[in-house]
Write a structure and sequence with these properties.
It comes from Cloeon dipterum. By secondary structure, the chain is an alpha+beta fold. Helices cover 32% and strands 27% of the residues. It has a domain at 23-111. The structure holds 2-acetamido-2-deoxy-beta-D-glucopyranose (NAG). The site of 2-acetamido-2-deoxy-beta-D-glucopyranose has 6 residues, from strand 16.
Length: 292
């Protein structure tokens, strides 16, 4: 009796609390801004902000999960398309909003029936045709932000995506305009504020210019290779050898001069001495003879 009375009093308040909680939860869902086509720079500037779950009220996608944590709030999320659940996409949190990760050219849920990659990727300027089946790779694509070359791959969502690019040091790089230094064999390629500088390991040199400018995706030349510095390497060696030879020759010459002058001096002195010592022997009798 007392228990049911207590239940009568408490149940509505518990119910109210649940409703309130649900309302509160819904209101903390965070807006997804899909209007920005290129979010690379936004992602570069994003710090360690975390967002509550993405709002999914337009029916395009659902089932958003936190990617970097077990639950929201999180920095990145993955959502699945409502019409084709096998396709998913990534979102990242910036300034209290969710944005489509720049890896995606477009929202994949808009292309649920697409199997092949038919549209270009806005981040790249490719020299080959922009159509390919799943998993096909397109090389010779220049990133419009840093003017460096990357490979693209047609992913399961029917989008051309940058293939993971890993340099000789095991660092991975993405197409963006951030400062970077990639190591590729004997080459190191530096990008910094619109300037590309190629440096070679010791013993190697660039086959031509080593500085290129990058303005709005336009590079004023091809990125040079590093070639063996044969001529200069042997030149350096022969230069030192030449110096040594010249030095030794000079030393020998000096020594010769010294020896010769010493010899000459000695000869002169000997001659003088013999004149002095010999003159009384021969001159006196001679003189004596002549005087006789
Ligand atoms: C490209 O531009 C940079 C910066 O202005 C310059 O240093 C370089 O010599 C240029 N290279 C070519 C090949 O014109």
């Amino acid at each position: 009796m007392l228990f049911s009375l207590a239940a009568l009093v408490f149940l509505p308040s518990i119910f109210a609390a649940t409703v309130e909680k649900r309302i509160e939860k819904r209101s903390t869902f965070v807006a997804v801004d899909l209007s920005r086509v290129d979010t690379r720079d936004l992602l570069n500037r994003a710090g360690y902000e975390e967002c509550n779950p993405p709002r999914t009220d337009h029916g395009l996608y659902r089932d958003c999960r936190a990617r970097d944590r077990s639950a929201f709030p999180a920095r990145s999320a993955e959502c699945f398309c409502a019409q084709c659940a096998e396709k998913s996409f990534k979102l990242f949190c910036s300034a209290g909003k969710w944005y489509l990760h720049p890896d995606h050219y477009d929202l994949p849920c808009k292309h649920c029936n697409n199997k092949a990659c038919t549209q270009p990727n806005r981040q790249f300027e490719c020299r080959s045709q922009q159509i390919g089946g799943a998993k096909s790779v397109k090389s010779d694509c220049t990133c419009l932000h840093d003017c460096l070359d990357y490979d693209l791959e047609c992913d399961a969502n029917g989008q051309w995506m940058q293939k993971k690019f890993i340099d000789s040091n095991g660092h991975s790089f993405v197409c963006n305009s951030e400062k970077k230094v990639m190591r590729l064999g004997y080459r190191s390629i530096e990008y910094d504020k619109g300037l590309i500088t190629v440096r070679c390991e010791k013993g190697y040199k660039t086959d031509y210019h080593n500085k290129l400018s990058c303005i709005n995706g336009f590079r004023n030349g091809t990125i040079p290779e590093c070639i063996l510095e044969q001529r200069s390497a042997s030149g350096k060696m022969s230069n030192t050898t030449l110096y040594i030879i010249v030095f030794v020759a000079l030393l020998l010459f000096l020594a010769l001069v010294v020896v010769l002058s010493v010899l000459l001096l000695r000869k002169c002195r000997n001659a003088e001495r013999s004149e002095i010592t010999e003159s009384p022997i021969y001159a006196t009798p001679g003189k004596a003879q002549s005087s006789n």
